[in-house]
Each structure stands twice: as C-alpha cells, then as structure tokens.
Amino acid sequence: MTMAAETLEENKATVELREEMDTRCRLNPDYASRIGNFGFIELEETWGDEATILNTARISTTNRRLAGLADFTQRDRDLLHHLLVHNHGTPFETVYCRWRIIAPIFVLRQWMRHRICSYNEFSQRYREPITAFYLPDDAARSIDGFQVLDDAQLQRYRELMEGLHRFYRDEYARVCQRLETAERAGEIPAVAGGRNPYRARARELLRNAMPVATYSDLYWTINFRSLMNFFDLRLKPDAQFEIRQFATVAHAMFKRRFPLLGETMDRVLAGEAGS
Ligand SMILES: Cc1cc2nc3c(=O)[nH]c(=O)nc-3n(C[C@H](O)[C@H](O)[C@H](O)COP(=O)(O)OP(=O)(O)OC[C@H]3O[C@@H](n4cnc5c(N)ncnc54)[C@H](O)[C@@H]3O)c2cc1C
Fold first, then answer.
1. Mean pLDDT on 226-254
2. Which of 9, 119, 122, 272 could disulfide-link to 267, CB 3.0 to 4.6 Å?
C-alpha cells in the first residue's frame, strides 16, 4: 500500500490545535514557535521581573525599591548576579512564567519530572487523543550524518503509529455504535448531555494503546528559580535531543522577555564566580 493511501486522517482536536498553533505564531511571533512536526511552545504570560527580585531581596536591608529595569544601576546588576551566584533563592521565586506546550508524551514525561511547578494537561479521558504523533526529522534520527534510523525503518515506525491511531479510531467508533444500539434496546440508560460514562470508560481503556509518540498539550506554570534548574538540566548535551529542542526555544524566549535576568542566569550557569 502507498503512503498516501495509509495517511491517517486528523481528528477534530488535531485540526483545531493545528489552527490554534498557526494563529498563536501569527499573533505572538516573538513568543510562540512550532517545533518538530507537530510541536509548539508559547510563553503566554509572565509575572514579576528583575526589579521584583531586588525589591524582594532588599526587604532585609533597605527601603530602596526599583520601578523597573530602567532604574537599574551597575550596583543593582551586580547585586542580581551576587544573589543568584550565592543561592539567595527565594527572591527568584517571585518571577513566574506560564507556558503552553504541545509535545510528544515521551517528552512531557521527562518534563514532568520537574516537580517544582504546576501542570494542567489535555485529557484522553474527556477527549479523543490527538492523532498527530512524533516523526523524527533528519537531524533527530542522525548522529554526525549517520542515520541511526534509516528511511525504511522510519516508514515502518510511521505505519505502526498510524496503525495504533487507526485502531483507536475504529474501536472507539465500534463502542459508540454498540452503545447507541444498546440505548435503543433499553439495555443501558440514555445519557442526555454531559459526560457519558460509557464513552468515557471506552476512552480510558483505549488510550492504553496510544504510543508515547502521540502529542499532548499542557500548561506549565513555573517560577524563575525552578525554570533556571530546568534550563540547567535540559539545555545540556546529555539531555535527550527532543526535550533539548524545546528547552532551547524556551530559553531564547525567556531571554527575549527578561534580557538582564537571562544574561545573569547564563553567566551563573556557565560557572562564573560571584563577588
Ligand atoms: C540527562 C538526564 C537524565 C535523567 N535520567 C533519569 C533516569 O534515568 N531516571 C529518572 O528517574 N530520572 C532521570 N532524570 C530526571 C532527574 O533525576 C530529575 O528528576 C529531573 O531532572 C528533575 O530535576 P529536579 O528534581 O532538580 O527538578 P524539580 O523536581 O523541579 O525540583 C527542583 C529542586 O527542588 C528540590 N526538590 C524537589 N523535590 C525534592 C524532594 N523530594 N526532596 C528534596 N529536594 C527536592 C531539589 O533541589 C531540586 O533540584 C534525568 C534527568 C536528566 C536531565
């Protein structure tokens, strides 16, 4: 069978997400970006800034307060660096970011190991899975020009993923048909509106067949201290390629939004000693 005949049709959730990602990239080009074949990240909202950090820290020492970055003297910049180098942690917990992330489940599984933050994720209990799954591009499947996964293997991988998604689609359609028949026959009560427990149970069971390459969608809210730890761990070459791709884009967005804090963070992560 040819690839064209095999191509999996996108379901409603997937079509809607694709449109949403395109819209967000158009409306917020500096802070929204596509990654890989269906990935996406957006820095949606932030709270606090470099001034918040110093104002919080200075509660211990002075009544001097800064209105914003424009007020910063070299002394303020040095203090920011000093505090970060010497692990004066809590002032750095006053700056928050909320991100929207659409990534394969295997990436999000690594991401969720970061516990000092908050997540809210797309539910395969309430909705059918996103039909998009991760397809590694040439850079993702090669090391030093050598294709670790060759074209024939990629084709088999793709067919397997599509087969699993087709399995879900067909079995779920069968469940829905059987439920309608059973309802008409009075074997089960008709569910008018709201959550249908029979369909929900079917989704709960059928989602077990979904591969970790399936894309999911979540909100991630995190303070700067914990975000810096994420960057420290996930930008390093030993982090897996795919999460590193996301971390790299997130890092660039963060630095665009908080130039001084971003630069200070990078100096500290690079091991620059403090005063
Ligand atoms: C390259 C790489 C390989 C990895 N391999 C594996 C692996 O094989 N298996 C595996 O299970 N994980 C693995 N991990 C995940 C790793 O162990 C961490 O769980 C993950 O990176 C989150 O880091 P974190 O705990 O610092 O972050 P967070 O959970 O966000 O925690 C932030 C900080 O809060 C503090 N903290 C949080 N919770 C506690 C606690 N319960 N007790 C004390 N202090 C706490 C710590 O100081 C921590 O650094 C890997 C991570 C990387 C980057």
1. 98
2. 272
